[in-house]
Automatic annotation (TrEMBL), chains A, B:
It comes from the Bacteria. It comes from Thalassospira mesophila. This is Antibiotic biosynthesis monooxygenase. PROSITE patterns: ABM. GO terms for molecular function: monooxygenase activity.
C-alpha cells in the first residue's frame, strides 16, 4: 500500500503568530517519535510569516489517523483555539 | 544559507486531467537532473484527481530560478496552456 502524504496549511491570526509557531514547534519531536511517521517537517512561508505548513509522510493512513487522536494534537488545538484563522489539510499520494 | 522549499499546487481543468498529468510527469526526471535540485516530488490529491502538487527542495533560490527558466518548463507551459485552471506557488523555509 502506498504511503500517505499530508500537506497541512496553517494561517495564524497576525496578532498570534508567535503563539501558533511555538505550539506547532512543540508537535515536531513528539510526532516524529510516533509509529509510522516517516517525515514531519514544519515550514514557514517566506512571504507571509503567519503562514505555516507541515509536510508529512506516513506509512499508512491508519497510523496517521492514530496520530490525529494523539494527546499532543488535542493540546495543540486547545492552546491555539481562536489563534488560527485558516487550516487546510490535503491527503495526497506521491506519484513520481 | 538555508535551502528553499517550493510547494506548487496545480489544478487541472477537469476535462484535461490526463494531459496535465502527463506533462507534469515529464518534468520530474528532467528537473531532478538539474543543479541544486534536492527533492522534486509530484503528488496527487487523494480526494481530487484534478489537483496536483510539487514538493520541491532546492539548494538555493538562485538555482531554483534558473530551473524556472529551463526549456522544459517553457515547453510544459506551452503544452498545458488553457488546461490549468489554478496555479499557486509558495516559497517556504523548513523551520523544524
Amino acid at each position: 500500500m502506498s504511503k500517505l502524504t499530508i500537506v497541512a496549511n496553517i494561517h495564524a491570526d497576525p496578532s498570534q503568530i508567535d503563539l501558533v509557531k511555538a505550539e506547532l514547534e512543540k508537535l515536531v519531536p513528539l510526532t516524529r517519535a510516533e509509529e509510522g511517521c516517516i517525515c514531519y517537517d514544519l515550514h514557514r512561508d517566506n512571504e507571509d510569516p503567519a503562514h505555516f505548513m507541515f509536510f508529512e509522510i506516513w506509512e499508512t493512513r491508519a497510523l496517521w489517523q492514530t496520530h490525529m487522536q494523539a494527546p499532543h494534537i488535542a493540546a495543540y488545538a486547545q492552546a491555539t483555539d481562536g489563534a488560527v484563522v485558516d487550516f487546510r489539510l490535503n491527503e495526497m499520494t506521491n506519484i513520481s
